[in-house]
Design goal:
Strand content: 5-15%
Oligomer: single chain
Low-confidence stretches: 1-42
Order of helices and strands: HHEHHEHEHEHH
Number of helices: 8
Largest sheet: 4 strands, parallel
Distance between the termini: 76 Å
Helix content: 40-55%
Radius of gyration: 26 Å
Strand order of the largest sheet: 2-1-3-4
Structural class: alpha/beta
Shape: globular
Length: about 210
């Protein structure tokens, strides 16, 4: 009887030892996976450039939206530029961003050539947000970023009362925010380039 008990105890101890060994191996594999180059690359920060002709309203708002932690979640660094920058950001665009609780410091109207020069940030994505900019010949962007057209009516062309103009900017902001929200939800680290291109093109049609 004692022999049987000792044998059973030894068997249980052996199973426990094997279970602990397999658990340790599994945990080690998970840790190696967490620090693998592929996993580290999946956590990269994506650079995104929004383009519009004058870089004074739509592209500016898109830059501010994506750079906010609420929408960009720290995974993206957004920029904006224009083919014919006005040199001034529309006051109504700034007002709309402030109403939404977003940062406006550092926003400026600038030429898109600034991002084609040596030493400029390498873009992962370039989105045009006005039809005229989409029809123009863009500079050659370093890094061969993925591109898509997310056309949006120009709120700066709105006429009427101050309230009607503010409403036009609010509508443009909401449309950009919705598209950006869809974009940031994409599992970019799990999709191939062709799949991502289809996704970002589809967003432009929403």
């Amino acid at each position: 009887m004692h022999f049987l008990l000792r044998t059973a105890a030894a068997a249980i101890w052996g199973f426990a030892l094997l279970h602990a060994l397999f658990s340790a191996l599994a945990n080690a594999e998970k840790e190696n996976e967490a620090f693998s180059p592929d996993r580290i690359m999946s956590r990269k920060t994506y650079n995104v450039l929004f383009l519009c002709t004058h870089n004074s309203a739509r592209s500016i708002m898109a830059e501010a939206i994506l750079n906010s932690l609420v929408y960009g979640r720290g995974r993206f660094k957004a920029y904006s530029a224009g083919s014919q920058p006005s040199g001034q950001v529309r006051p109504l665009a700034i007002e709309q961003l402030k109403r939404a609780g977003l940062q406006t410091e550092g926003l400026r109207s600038k030429d898109w050539d600034e991002f084609a020069k040596p030493g400029a940030p390498i873009m992962d994505f370039v989105f045009t947000v006005c039809d005229s900019a989409a029809k123009e010949v863009c500079p050659v962007w370093p890094g061969q970023p993925m591109t898509a057209h997310w056309g949006q009516p120009d709120p700066s062309s709105a006429e009427g009362t101050d309230e009607q103009k503010q409403w036009a900017f609010a509508q443009a902001f909401a449309a950009l925010r919705n598209r950006i929200s869809i974009f940031v939800s994409l599992p970019l680290d799990k999709l191939d380039r062709l799949a991502i291109q289809k996704k970002i093109d589809k967003i432009g049609n929403t």
